[in-house]
């Protein structure tokens, strides 16, 4: 249970006891719990969405739900996404990593976050009410299964960096366990659409991480965070397409 609490403490703003020392290696060991934390987060979002859609117009309700979503996670993964976008302006891997280490947000990061959040807001607001809570739950779970997979697939950018420490704590069973939990939840809430959403969400995270690995010389903690955010968006867009497509 200590690993589960560590996952909650790292992935959310829920006040969990910080007694004892826990490093990023321990966080890697807690990776199979990430989709479980995602499921709890998704259920909270489902409740928030259920309340807001009964009180406010669809767009405002979606905005409130997305706001709660990002607040509950402390903007952790959004920060990683913004850093990765800023880092793309560098001329070589070392310069890109140096830009990403700067706490200030640049033009690429700011513009990218604006468009990203607009896409996420539009995707949530246009989903039918019956599908919205299902998509929110699936997105939160599937996205949090990706760090364990990315940590196993790609080499770290720096020997002592966050990506390396996280990967060092990953067990061989971490990625299969996390993906297995995500698959079960996705199928239960979305049926066959959940299988497609899982494939697209995980595939998007892997593709983006592969691209960033080539640009940065390896995976960093920011890349893992960006993968989570992009997987969430990919799942929402997939469910939206599944619902609205007329082929």
Fold and architecture overview:
This protein has 247 residues and is mainly α. It has one domain (2-241). It contains 13 helices and no strands. The chain has helices at 2-11, 24-29, 34-55, 58-72, 76-87, 93-101, 107-125, 129-143, 146-153, 162-168, 174-190, 192-216, 221-244. Helix 5 crosses helix 7.
Quick structural overview:
The protein is globular and about 50 Å long. The chain has helices at 2-11, 24-29, 34-55, 58-72, 76-87, 93-101, 107-125, 129-143, 146-153, 162-168, 174-190, 192-216, 221-244.
Keywords:
globular, 13 helices, single chain, 247 residues
Largest sheet: none
What amount of the residues lies in strands? under 5%
Q: Write down the Rg.
A: 17 Å
The end-to-end distance, rounded to whole angstroms, is: 47 Å
Number of strands: 0
């Amino acid at each position: 249970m200590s690993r589960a609490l560590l996952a909650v403490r790292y992935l959310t703003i829920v006040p969990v006891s910080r007694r004892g020392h826990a490093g990023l290696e321990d966080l890697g060991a807690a990776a199979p719990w990430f989709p479980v934390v995602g499921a709890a987060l998704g259920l909270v979002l489902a409740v928030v969405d259920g309340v807001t859609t009964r009180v406010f117009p669809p767009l405002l309700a979606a905005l409130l739900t997305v706001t709660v979503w990002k607040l509950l996670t402390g903007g952790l993964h959004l920060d990683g996404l913004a850093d990765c976008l800023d880092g793309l302006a560098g001329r070589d891997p070392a310069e890109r990593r140096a830009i990403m280490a700067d706490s200030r947000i640049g033009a690429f990061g700011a513009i990218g976050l604006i468009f990203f959040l607009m896409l996420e807001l539009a995707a949530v607001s246009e989903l039918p009410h019956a599908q919205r809570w299902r998509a929110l739950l699936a997105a939160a779970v599937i996205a949090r299964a990706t760090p364990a997979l990315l940590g196993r697939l790609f080499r770290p950018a720096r020997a002592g960096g966050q990506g390396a420490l996280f990967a060092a704590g990953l067990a061989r069973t971490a990625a299969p366990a996390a993906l297995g939990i995500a698959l079960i939840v996705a199928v239960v809430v979305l049926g066959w659409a959940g299988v497609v959403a899982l494939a697209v969400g995980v595939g998007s995270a892997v593709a983006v991480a592969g691209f960033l690995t080539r640009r940065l010389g390896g995976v960093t903690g920011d890349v893992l965070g960006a993968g989570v955010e992009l997987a969430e968006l990919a799942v929402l867009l997939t469910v939206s397409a599944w619902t609205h497509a007329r082929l």
